[in-house]
Automatic annotation (TrEMBL):
Residues 357-379 have a biased composition (Polar residues). This is Septin. One of its GO terms (cellular component) is cleavage furrow. Keywords: Cell cycle, Cell division, Cell membrane, Cell projection, Cytoplasm, Cytoskeleton, GTP-binding, Membrane, Mitosis, Nucleotide-binding. PROSITE patterns: G_SEPTIN. Its main location: membrane. The gene is LOC115224723. It comes from Octopus sinensis.
Length: 379
């Protein structure tokens, strides 16, 4: 039933000065939840630092069910591999397509001078693929496989950054968000952890390495969030311990590592920075994606456009954009254009000769023609 041209079942907010655009965040939330999220995490570090265990602990998933640990003889000639594992995680209706890129063999060879070249090539390849898809016709369903974050694992027994650590981070800090991670923090005392953190940060500043800067809090944020951001910034590099085993401590099941003197709890902030690292990753996941899009990807795109290496588009007669022809196709097209031009000139000359033979008034070979006409002797 309709009354006065309106549906009586429609509810109209009876508030003065209320338009309704305050509901826009809810619309964005519903659309994002329906679409799902994509995130790519790169883990780099020497073998034996617990990279796989930490990733499995972070996302409560077994991403490496058939992981092969190389022997000492295999490490001599081992090269860096790129191992990407993708898993879809759903939590309270929110879907996350997580891709973890592992780099087995990094730093294991005797000569590690160019061991990170495959990693740089992989990062650039994902940028190149995204740029190609973005420049194509179908841009609605682009899969974002760009690397959004890089966990770089630092050996706790190296007393700071090694030359390989410095070389790698300086080579990729303008391509990806680097988050330094101090692995196996349970092998150090609290004082040793603090001293090593301070030394690593001093070396990062000394060599001009740009790590991922945690965003500053706005002035209107609550005090709890400001305190959380302050603690996360002070925790860099994050001293972590990973474990997939559970033990019972004080009547409560916890994940950790058992030692003769007790259990190191992974999710205890007093034992390690595992909770802080996970909080940083989850809380600032959107910011990591935005920094990748607005800074790292835009720098790559601008460099490609300035260098002229981007695949250009040409428009066909039907108005549809098609990829530019290759050098061989371009040469064939130029030859065909020359042949067409020669045929046109030959046909024009034959037409002029035929017009001379059938003309009403014969013209001498040495008599000049009128304006705009070609002399017969030139033919």
């Amino acid at each position: 039933m309709f009354q006065n041209g309106t549906d009586e079942g429609f509810v109209n907010p009876e508030q003065i000065g209320y338009v309704g655009f305050a509901n826009l965040p809810n619309q964005v939330h519903r659309k994002s939840v329906k679409k799902g999220f994509e995130f790519t995490l790169l883990v780099v570090g020497e073998s034996g630092l617990g990279k796989s265990t930490l990733v499995n602990s972070l996302f409560l998933a077994d991403l490496y069910p058939e992981r092969h640990i190389p022997s000492a003889s295999e490490k001599i000639t081992q090269t860096v591999k790129i191992d990407a594992s993708t898993v879809e995680i759903e939590e309270r209706g929110v879907k996350l397509r997580l891709t973890v890129v592992d780099t087995p063999g990094f730093g294991d060879s005797l000569n590690s001078e160019d061991c990170f070249t495959p990693i740089i090539e992989y990062i650039d390849e994902q940028f190149e693929r995204y740029l190609h898809d973005e420049s194509g016709l179908n841009r609605r369903h682009i899969i974002d496989n760009r690397v959004h974050c890089c966990f770089y694992f630092i050996n706790p027994s190296s007393h700071g950054l090694k030359p390989l650590d410095i070389s790698f981070m300086k080579a990729v800090h303008h391509k990806v968000n680097i988050v330094p991670v101090l692995a196996k923090a349970d092998t150090l005392t609290k004082k040793e952890v603090l001293n090593l953190k301070r030394k690593i940060m001093d070396q990062i500043d000394e060599y001009g390495i740009n790590i991922y800067p945690l965003p500053d809090c706005d002035s209107d944020e609550d005090d709890d969030y400001k305190e959380q951001c302050r603690q996360l910034k002070e925790a860099v590099p994050f001293a972590v311990v990973g474990s997939s085993e559970s033990f019972e401590v004080n009547g409560k099941k916890v994940r950790g590592r058992r030692y003769p003197w007790g259990v190191v709890e992974v999710e205890n902030p007093d034992h390690c920075d595992f909770i802080k690292l996970r909080t940083m990753l989850i809380t600032h996941m959107q910011d990591l994606q935005e920094v990748t899009q607005e800074i790292h990807y835009e720098n790559f795109r601008a460099e490609k456009l300035a260098g002229g290496k981007v695949v250009k588009q040409r428009t066909s007669r039907s108005g549809v954009q098609q990829p530019e022809a290759t050098d061989r196709e371009q040469a064939l097209m130029e030859k065909e254009a020359e042949l067409r031009q020669m045929k046109e000139m030959l046909a024009k000359m034959q037409a002029e000769m035929a017009a001379q033979k059938t003309g009403n008034s014969p013209v001498s070979n040495h008599q000049p023609r009128q304006n705009g006409e070609v002399k017969s002797q030139n033919v």
